[in-house]
Amino acid sequence: MALDHAILVSLLEKPGSGYELARRFDRSIGYFWTATHQQIYRVLKRMEAEGWVDVRDVPQQGRPDKKEYSVSASGLTALAEWLQKPIQPESVRHELAVKIRGAAFGDPAALVGEVERHRRMHQEQLAHYLAGERRDFGGSGAAGAPEPEAPGSGRPDAERELQHVVLRGGIAYERMMIAWLDDVLATLRRLGPRR
Amino acid sequence: MALDHAILVSLLEKPGSGYELARRFDRSIGYFWTATHQQIYRVLKRMEAEGWVDVRDVPQQGRPDKKEYSVSASGLTALAEWLQKPIQPESVRHELAVKIRGAAFGDPAALVGEVERHRRMHQEQLAHYLAGERRDFGGSGAAGAPEPEAPGSGRPDAERELQHVVLRGGIAYERMMIAWLDDVLATLRRLGPRR
DNA sequence: CCCAGCATGTAACGGGTTACATGATTAG
DNA sequence: CTAATCATGTAACCCGTTACATGCTGGG
Question: What span is annotated as the signal peptide, if there is one (chains A, B) (predicted)?
């Protein structure tokens, strides 16, 4: 289970509250791992009990107080151990592919709208990634852009480079999906309506 | 939840036992949806109770008897209804990406072996898909290859075309992953060992 | 004789999802 | 006044995973 470790990585990049983590999971971390606030609170509580994270009450004005979590020494050790262990390849889950194969037993043309909708969503996600890349990693060429967020406890250069390569993975994924959905649309249109 | 519908699609393509379904989920259907035999038996029992599938005892010689499941009329209706409903985009889960970002707080070079391992697995999966494509959908050009499996109750041409376009999606995915993992490897090597 | 394959299951555990709950402040 | 944002939580349910169990046949 990687949610624990995803949270550790996020807290190492920048300490924060459960609420803040939930928002990060809707954004940068969410590019490759999703979690709701319920899951996050549950895991934070468990990790606190195990001593992987430290908590600090932060009073705020104009807002509710919050608990700021940060990674403890033993949490860092746990992460390092996990990094050593091989993981098995993720099992794929493409509900849309189930639908596409299922369309042979319904009306292929009826799926066109749905596939177009997915294509649009991937297009938006791609635009979002590209905007983030431009903002955080400079226009095109060399480095030199200021860090958008305070770097965590690691080497700032490694942190940035690795965040960037993961983002490039997201970009490649969205491009691949868009191209494939075009292929799917052409196929559905060629098949036409139910006999 | 799509496991129900993935099973319905597989049974429409060809009726079979829980055991046979489990093997298909390790192969063709498993390209985009995974399931273990325990899940499959559980769902088959539920769908039988709901009347989505019919069961037929098939005595065999030299092997244990089996229960052959096939989709009932109401199962087909349920599938058609599900095809109409929009689904939300799959939430991404890339454990390897968590590790890559986590490597900034450990030793980036130590991840190289693991990433190479994943690259090899994707290469094998790609080879497997390409072999399947050559076998089932002809060398390169036009159609004309004999169906490798008896077609289900739909239009055979639509069934084949849609299976092929899903397979092309798998192929595109593996190619994208291999290219991205090369990018990751180059990045990790550039960063070198822990300071 | 033992292992691999065929075939079907039960049990337990943990994670993910959805719904519900509370309470404060600020902006429209 | 109402809605949105910040902030933390409980409860229930289902799904996915892992381990265990049974029994038969054929091949090395």
Answer: none
